[in-house]
């Protein structure tokens, strides 16, 4: 081993992870500090940087035709900005007392230590891969990186059969089900939950279930996968539960992700209940003045419940990176928290949520009422008006908005942004009914569906007083 980088007058910032949070932090710090003042070294164990993991299902499904369309900034572009980016290099140890990291060249195995003045941990998340018999067999894929996406596409191109099984029915699961339907596969989704999309309440998840069934997807709920049987050639041939087997020529694991914090844990850095790193508002790791963390490896403050939660989203990762880069570069910025907004789709069905589900509210000790309405995306008489269902939670006595869920067709999902802003502002559902939203028949009914459900929530609150 060798100690690289003798210390000079300038500072060195080391970044672990070359995707959204890490490279946003590096780029922002570079904007604020020139190379003579701040050296930036970034380690990335994969082949790509600054890519959209959220776009991988649409690349697999054919909506995005070129992998490079998912890359926001190439390694060459980062290096042109005086960032020492080292691809195919994995950090294997963080020595906090010594302010250094050990890195290993993935291809050669060579190891070296690099010292730092400032450290950014942006190690992301890892797909949940349960320890089941056959889970590592050829034909079984997780989807987290561009390399994962390419491996899946290679398998699809080489596979003669057209039966696919997706394990899990969260965002990744339903998006991969759509991708495989678009590829002409017969798709079965095996889900351990009561309904797909556990990020929704079950009554709203039931709407997603019906729509997926209508699209020709076989939905299997309340089913625990026990093993992945293989054939004589060693390839996966089915997904087995306690009751039956579902034939498969390819299997995609869409169970979700966990924060990739093994390095941080080994270094003694503080982790939360979800195993994500804990930071302050400036995204500094708690108790460590010169270490920051952001992206899918951290826990964030839920502004509605007041509790820490784990949400892996590219929107948060990019914001974290901007905050970290600003602070590491000598400026000042904070990340106040989230309200838990997310949107997705499966074919033409749009799915959105923000704030708390019913079980979240109960866990937080909140008393609440619910209201659910059915409406349309446009005036009912205007061509193309599409149905949507909107559900809203409001706190008893105060009337504070707690959460909103929307399931519908075109024009449904982005309406959740109205509720996201209202949650961030701490609005009541009564206050929301007076919001001055845009109206014209091609865009909305006279009363926007979000306002209609808010009015109904107000009525539920009044009824609950008696």
From TrEMBL:
<comment type="similarity">
    <text>Belongs to the class-III pyridine nucleotide-disulfide oxidoreductase family.</text>
</comment>
<dbReference type="InterPro" id="IPR004099">
    <property type="entry name" value="Pyr_nucl-diS_OxRdtase_dimer"/>
</dbReference>
<dbReference type="Pfam" id="PF02852">
    <property type="entry name" value="Pyr_redox_dim"/>
</dbReference>
<dbReference type="InterPro" id="IPR023753">
    <property type="entry name" value="FAD/NAD-binding_dom"/>
</dbReference>
<keyword id="KW-0274">FAD</keyword>
<dbReference type="InterPro" id="IPR050260">
    <property type="entry name" value="FAD-bd_OxRdtase"/>
</dbReference>
<feature type="domain" description="FAD/NAD(P)-binding">
    <location>
        <begin position="12"/>
        <end position="317"/>
    </location>
</feature>
<protein>
    <submittedName>
        <fullName>Flavoprotein oxidoreductase</fullName>
    </submittedName>
</protein>
<keyword id="KW-0285">Flavoprotein</keyword>
<dbReference type="InterPro" id="IPR036188">
    <property type="entry name" value="FAD/NAD-bd_sf"/>
</dbReference>
<dbReference type="Pfam" id="PF07992">
    <property type="entry name" value="Pyr_redox_2"/>
</dbReference>
<dbReference type="GO" id="GO:0016491">
    <property type="term" value="F:oxidoreductase activity"/>
</dbReference>
<keyword id="KW-0676">Redox-active center</keyword>
<dbReference type="InterPro" id="IPR016156">
    <property type="entry name" value="FAD/NAD-linked_Rdtase_dimer_sf"/>
</dbReference>
<feature type="domain" description="Pyridine nucleotide-disulphide oxidoreductase dimerisation">
    <location>
        <begin position="344"/>
        <end position="446"/>
    </location>
</feature>
<keyword id="KW-0560">Oxidoreductase</keyword>
């Amino acid at each position: 081993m060798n100690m690289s980088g003798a210390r000079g007058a300038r500072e060195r910032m080391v970044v672990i992870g070359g995707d959204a949070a890490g490279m946003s932090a590096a780029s922002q710090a570079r904007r604020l500090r020139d190379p003579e003042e701040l050296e930036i070294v970034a380690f990335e164990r994969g082949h790509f940087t600054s890519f959209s993991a959220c776009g991988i299902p649409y690349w697999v499904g054919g909506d995005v035709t070129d992998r490079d369309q998912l890359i926001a900034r190439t390694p060459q572009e980062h290096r042109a900005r005086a960032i020492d980016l080292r691809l195919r290099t994995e950090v294997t140890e963080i020595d906090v007392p010594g302010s250094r990291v050990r890195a290993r060249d993935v291809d050669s195995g060579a190891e070296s230590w690099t010292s730092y003045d400032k450290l950014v941990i942006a190690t992301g998340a890892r797909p949940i891969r349960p320890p089941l018999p056959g889970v590592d067999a050829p034909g079984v894929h997780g989807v987290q990186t561009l390399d994962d996406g390419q491996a899946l596409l290679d398998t699809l191109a080489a596979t003669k059969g057209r039966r696919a099984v997706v394990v899990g029915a969260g965002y990744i699961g339903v998006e991969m089900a759509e991708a495989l339907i678009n590829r002409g596969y017969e798709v079965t989704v095996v889900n351990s939950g009561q309904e797909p999309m556990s990020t929704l309440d079950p009554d709203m998840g039931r709407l997603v279930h019906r729509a997926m069934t209508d699209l020709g997807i076989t939905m299997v709920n309340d089913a625990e996968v026990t093993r992945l049987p293989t054939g004589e050639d060693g390839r996966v041939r089915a997904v087995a539960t306690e009751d039956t087997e579902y034939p498969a020529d390819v299997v995609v694991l869409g169970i979700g992700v966990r924060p990739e914090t093994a390095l941080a844990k080994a270094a003694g850095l503080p982790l939360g209940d979800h195993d994500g790193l804990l930071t302050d508002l400036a995204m500094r790791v708690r108790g460590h003045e010169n270490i920051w963390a952001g992206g899918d490896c951290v826990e964030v403050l839920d502004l509605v419940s007041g509790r820490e939660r784990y949400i892996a989203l590219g929107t948060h990762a990019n914001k974290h990176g901007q905050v970290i880069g600003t602070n590491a570069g000598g400026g000042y910025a904070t990340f106040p928290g989230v309200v838990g907004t997310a949107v997705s789709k499966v074919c033409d069905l749009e799915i959105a949520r923000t704030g708390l589900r019913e079980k979240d509210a109960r866990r937080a000790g909140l008393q609440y009422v619910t209201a659910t309405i059915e409406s349309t995306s446009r005036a009912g008489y205007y061509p193309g008006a599409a149905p949507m269902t909107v559900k809203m939670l409001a706190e008893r006595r105060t009337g504070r908005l707690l959460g909103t869920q929307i399931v519908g067709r075109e024009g449904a999902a982005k309406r959740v942004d109205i509720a996201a802003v209202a949650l961030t502002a701490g609005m009541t559902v009564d206050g929301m009914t007076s919001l001055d939203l845009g109206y014209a028949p091609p865009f909305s009914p006279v009363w926007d569906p979000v306002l209609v459900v808010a009015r109904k929530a107000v009525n539920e609150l009044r009824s609950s007083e008696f």
